[in-house]
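note to self: dont lose this again. the chain is below, predicted strucutre after it. 288 aa total, dont forget to put it in the shared folder this time
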Amino acid sequence: MLPQTLWMAPPGDLLAASVACIVGLLIGSFLNVVIYRVPKMMQRESENYVAQESGLVLPHAGRFNLMVPRSACPQCGHQITALENIPVLSYLALRGKCSACKAPIPARYPVIEALTGALSGWLVWQFGGGLPGLAVLVFAWMLIAMTFIDADTQLLPDDLTLPLLWLGLLVNLNGTFAPLQDAVIGAALGYLCLWLIFWAFKLATGKEGMGYGDFKLLAALGAWLGWKMLPVIVLLSSVVGAIVGITLIVLAKRGRDIPMPFGPYLAAAGMLAMLYGKPIVQAWLGSL
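---
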């Protein structure tokens, strides 16, 4: 009866939110694998393609995906055991070091796990169980993965952006978060909006101000939330991006010419719009 109870849980159900938090911790551990391996999978595939076209020996013959090989310490090759892979707790027990060679483990791993767990619990608390609750969890998990991949590599893989877009349209077949018509228009306008900005900036400066993955991510957010949320998402992402950019320039002495990924700000704005977009739009329309 417990799974059925969680599936039918209303918003504000503490048991469902607690279970979602625990599940989120486990998903966060898997997202660490996704964030680390997906860019490497793309690179290996590209290098193999170039070698094949040139008639050369493939540089990467072994299997490398989200399942194999097993996770291991990049310094000494020690394979991570099940007890060393418990979200957050294992990091604390190991004191942030590899059990074999004592090399430091990046603190980002438990941070991503804790973030995913806390956000998962909060989303189920807000949306409850059923289709909306499960859908918004997948939405958040994919945004977290894309945020950190883009921050690391300035890439937003099609393997994540396109499934997120199509899933948004499918979820909204019955108007879960937006009417289907608004979702379709949102997907189209989301892509065209940044596409036009990209080309206007390129024609004016001769430089590329963003990547094509940003177009697809905003299209995916439009598919989930509808076209009416696009101005809110663009405004929030621009404000957050400007604040972070200025802070990095002033405090971290980051050069102004160093490119910054826009995907994390789009993802954060999309998450805020999912949670609080309707009150923001109502307040905005009311002020007008």
